[in-house]
């Protein structure tokens, strides 16, 4: 399970620990897709705020690395709770999935005693997210093609 969550709640004026933004796609700039339309607690953003937050999550550099340190603890805690059998542990993870036509995609998942129990569909996306999803899929497709070819060559 990769760390796909970020603590970035300043625009929402909330404690980052209370905010959940599903981050799907991949782990590199254009492939990172924060689903701000699905943020909890629900919040509406201006187009400028959407672009600002998306850019921060894609290009945050050191800031993102620092933010992900807290997310790593939250991610590990969620894994452990799921493995202990706690129900309704939902996080985002880069997994084998049929959410898109790609073989792997960071998606919302429900964790359980054996790992990932369920992979959720993307849910409703706004126009900005649909366009970003297409860019992310295109970039991820190329990366996955190279990685899978490398894996196949090592297997032979």
Automatic annotation (TrEMBL):
Entry GO CC:
chloroplast
MF terms from GO for this chain are: L-malate dehydrogenase (NAD+) activity
Swiss-Prot/TrEMBL keywords: NAD, Oxidoreductase
Task: Please indicate which superkingdom the organism of origin belongs to.
Answer: Eukaryota
Classification via Pfam families: Ldh_1_C
Task: Please state every residue range assigned to the domain named Lactate/malate dehydrogenase C-terminal.
Answer: 10-149
Q: What is this protein called?
A: Lactate/malate dehydrogenase C-terminal domain-containing protein
Name the source organism: Brassica oleracea var. oleracea
């Amino acid at each position: 399970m990769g760390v796909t969550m970020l603590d970035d709640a300043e625009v929402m004026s909330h404690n980052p620990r209370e905010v959940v933004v599903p981050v799907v796609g991949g782990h590199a700039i254009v492939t990172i897709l924060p689903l701000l339309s699905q943020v909890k607690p629900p919040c509406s953003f201006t187009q400028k705020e959407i672009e600002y937050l998306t850019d921060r999550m894609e290009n945050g550099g050191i800031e993102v690395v620092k933010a992900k340190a807290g997310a790593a603890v939250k991610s590990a805690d969620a894994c452990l709770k799921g493995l202990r059998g706690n129900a309704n542990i939902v996080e985002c993870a880069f997994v084998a999935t049929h959410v898109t036509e790609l073989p792997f995609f960071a998606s919302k998942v429900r964790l359980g005693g054996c790992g990932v129990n369920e992979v959720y569909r993307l849910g409703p996306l706004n126009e900005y997210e649909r366009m970003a999803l297409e860019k992310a899929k295109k970039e991820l497709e190329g990366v996955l093609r190279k990685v899978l070819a490398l894996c196949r060559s090592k297997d032979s």
